Amino acid sequence: MKAIVTISITFLFSILGYSQNLKKKTVYFLFEKNKTDSVRNLGYKFYREKEKGYVFNLMDKNVSLLYKNKQKSDTLPLSKLKNYKITPVTKIDVLEKEWYYRNKEALIKKYTWFINLSDRNAVFKTFLIEIINDKQFVVYPVTWRNQNATD
Asked: Taxonomically, which superkingdom (predicted)?
């Protein structure tokens, strides 16, 4: 019985140890509304009943993010915006490759049979910042949409 308990505890700590090595990178994107009709579907925010949340299509790149209704957002004064490091969407591919390179050994140990290289939700803890007026902005925790899908 002691052997089973010891093995179980060792297994649990080894799993926890690997998960600490795979820390997600936190990124903040700035949502900009589309002010022209020149770029179709980019820079729009809309509610999608099927996903029970708001979809944000970013202007810079073909990126679609989802804010689910049950998640908590923060409304803050615009003076606090300087505390957030905004990531340009154009740099996301570079950041993703850096994360995989930095975590290569831990990924191989954890997923010896398969490494998923196409799900940014596994790599990034993603937030979206929307300036709602000249005094406030909102920080939304979001997830990447359409991961592991072919267009």
From this structure: Bacteria
